[in-house]
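Let us practice reading a record.
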Amino acid sequence: MNPVTSQPLELPLAGGAPTERRDAVRNRNAILCTARRLFAEQGVDRVSMDAIAAAAGVGKGTLFRRFGDRASLVRSLLEETEAAFQEDFIRGPAPLGPGAPPADRLVAFGHALLDQIEAIGPLVLAAETGSPGVRFSHSVYAAHRAHVRALVRAGAPELDADYTADALLAALSAELVMHQLRGRSVPLEDVKAGWTALADRVLG
């Protein structure tokens, strides 16, 4: 099967933001630093938005105007991680990046996301579980979906690439993976083996 090179995708999280006032930048940095510290100390689920605002020294209105809800705040914390991940699967070395067969790239993509959930699962889960449907409307999901869809089109053109991409990404949702890893105590390597078998069956 021929290697596939995904079309370059615009990184939705890197650059392009309008210039902010100094006080706005200061408040944003204070909120993010405080949230990161509190989440590490107490756990994501145990820290309220009110507690973050108080510890950061900003008003609740400032916090909610800036981030809207907890999921948006957590996504901001994950921007650097996500931008690096997108760079890896768009332009990085194979098999995650271009130069490997579609099935191999799909396996590598899933393994990388599974490693991320293993390492920072509560944050990824919080980023995915805001308002109903927020995960699917966000630019991060759009970038992942576009990449997986391109791999499906290259490796299994007879399939409905749009449906298949969504179905594959459902298997990598933080809620499901956290349930497998924590709720059912499935070893990470077994989850990865399941993903490899699924990817090979779809694109092999």
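A brief commentary: The mean pLDDT is 88.
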